[in-house]
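Hey,

The postdoc asked me to send both predictions to you directly instead of through the lab channel. I've kept everything plain text so nothing gets mangled by the mail client. Protein one:
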Amino acid sequence: MANFHYAPIQSGIVTSTLLDFQNKAADKVRADFGFQSRVRWSLENKQSYITSLILGMAPSKFIFASTKLCANTNNIPDKDYYNDWNENKKVDYLNIDSNNRVTTIAEYWKNEFGIEEGFYDIDDTIVEIIKGTNDTYNTLPLVVKERLNTAAITLEIIHSASRNQLSQLFIRLNDGITLNGPEKRNAIISKFADEIRKLATKHETYLRHFFAPKDINRRKVDDFIAGLAMIYFHGVKVTISEKTFQAAYKSESTEDNSVDKFVTFIGKFFKFIGKKIKTIPNKNTVLDLFVIYKQLTDDRFVIEDKKKFFEDFFKVNAKLLTDTTKHEYNDGRDATYKELLRSREVRFNTLRHKLIIDAGFNPESYAIERDSRRTFTKEDKFVSAVESDFMTAEGKEIDPTKLFDVREYQGGHIQPWSKGGKTNQDNCVIQTAEDNRILGAKPVE
């Protein structure tokens, strides 16, 4: 069993009125989504909380970490972490356990919703709150607004804690209460966790129509992308479960050390699908496409006829969705193709993939195979330079003494390698490094 080092955080308690907090501190408080949850309260939750503040029935303390005070540490990564928030992002406090509350208060101050309607007994005065009439902050009756402004809140300010301690504090505060699996994993400190979170934010627009807003707020998009990462690293036969996720999210895991490759790959994948993702009715069909795209890439194929690829893929899926045939996925258990889309369980994933291929969809028929060799040899470059009288494809004179310096000159593919061009003498030209970079995946003219 691992021997963990435990150390207490240091903090202090202060009290404030709600109005003072809003005027003096609220704009300088931010949530670090590296461990904190996104807002997931419903309108009813928000209305109930503001009403509770008015009635003095919201005693839970706010827990913040002072970025300035916590930066006073000899641990360089922690010092850099807090200084980045304090000096670069101008954030005085990191919100550890009250993001829903702080965000709800800010929204109410901006009149974005109204409190619960009904009769409020304030200082021996009965005030009726009517929806759409006097329920927002600006329209509140004076006696109610004064009670809200002077509502007392308790703040625990952490002034000495490492980044890891903040993460562990957040998990312990929520352990066994409200956090789901994706939210707990998000609080783990690792590069894999950081990149999955960034990818979810970046590619949410591609995936949001598969998830309800409350599921997006509870990191279900993160969870889906993490599942694609498991397939990227281990293939379609991987078991996507809490156990395998926990292993992947650990610092220095295989996935953690190689996550940059997945980031690049999934960017290409979403670019490949583009707006066609809006036509797909089920998120696990996106997973099926990811499996196909990954296998093609691994086998050095690049899809040439993208239009036909999607036309036929959609036709096959439409046919399978209307097929009532039952397919056995476990001993004594079977399901239609449509029913198989309800889960990303390994038996479902592998069976769906088989059914798509067996239905006549051959991914390689829409692709061309890339040359297994990506770069030209020195001999290839030498021959091309001689045959061109030491002139680049763009007509620039080649310095023979720097021909093999990749910072100066590079072998370019006349027909791009990414489009199936061969890495052989006939397809080789010399370009300056800058011209080769600018050309990208375009053919040399």
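Protein two:
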Amino acid sequence: MEILRNMWRRKFRTFLTIFGIAIGIFAFTVMGSMALKFNKMISGGKKYITGQISVTPKGSMYGSSGGNTLPLDTLNEIATIDGVNKVGALVELAVEEPNPDEMSMSMGTPPTIYGMDHNSDYKNRNWETMDVKDGRMVGKGDKENQVTIGISIATDEKLSVGDTYKIRGKDFEVVGVLNKTMTGPDSYVFMDINPAREMLIASNPFMKSLYDQGRLKLEDVNSMAGVSWKDDADSEKVSQAIKDKVGDKVIVLSPQKMGEQIDKASVTFNAIIFGSAVLALIVGLFSIVNTMIMSISERTKEIGIKKAIGASPGSIIREYTFEAGVIGLLGGIVGLGFGYLMIAIVNARLSSQGAEIFLVDINFFIEVIIFAFVIGMIAGVIPAIRASKMKVVDAIREL
């Protein structure tokens, strides 16, 4: 109560100090939640990409064939390389035909068709299966018109198990809905590779022309492939062996090097995000220091009287340090409140597009509040030590 009374003596100054720390905590909350979302996506992507050797057609980018394909003969050739366990053909393409007149930007993965060869025994070493919320994961024995969808697609399209989902003019039966992963699979449609191949051909006039003329076989239409390695083999050596044998036809992405690139991107992004937030926090920290120094200079008589009646330097330090901590705590609560409000509003607006850019994490919010309190106490240490060293005679002169 005494601390609150002391803060209430200079209401406007206290308000400005709390507001200053609130701005810093607001920035820290918003930026931190964005970084959490980014890191969650990155960790899921890294787990997948480091669980396989990824092979794409020459002249393409990862996850996009760019019109080029991986023929079955090339995949069979890779399967014979020493150290290779299984090769799985994959097809990835957007759920909706891209509109060249529109440009869309998303923090998350856009709705994507993920075509898998259900007759193959290939498994990603880190993603052997997906956790399913309802129904089941499509696989061997399922019909070509059956799909399992990510939770974001189920929510956006209002779909559940048993519903019909029209994709690029074709009807598919939803047999499963995945659990929320906060990563790419939330926006994936998992299906058999053949209908995915047909839709890829239909989306590319050149491939469609070759296919209609009989010069392109359906099994040769693969946008990428995943390669697993044997338990006693080294993934980097197997990657190099694939490059040596078919490097003129494909691009080989080794798990280790891809993981390193993902880590570098993550570190850079986090440094930018948290650097901006820390700058805002420093401003708030100095405002607390200034407020406490002014408060102590105005309470010289009070401090002197406390020391005259037996207050120890340690008790003086604890009192003023804790007061600064309370200011930081109040600023933290206010800043966190406004930060959460902004996160909720932005995520709600973007949820219909599956593009939430913030991750709400209760543990992170608790850490923010504790951090604000600790920052306040740290800012109050120097003024508190100054108060503890004040001589009683100085207070007498003030009387």
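Summary for protein two, as requested: The chain has twelve helices and ten strands.

Thanks,
C.
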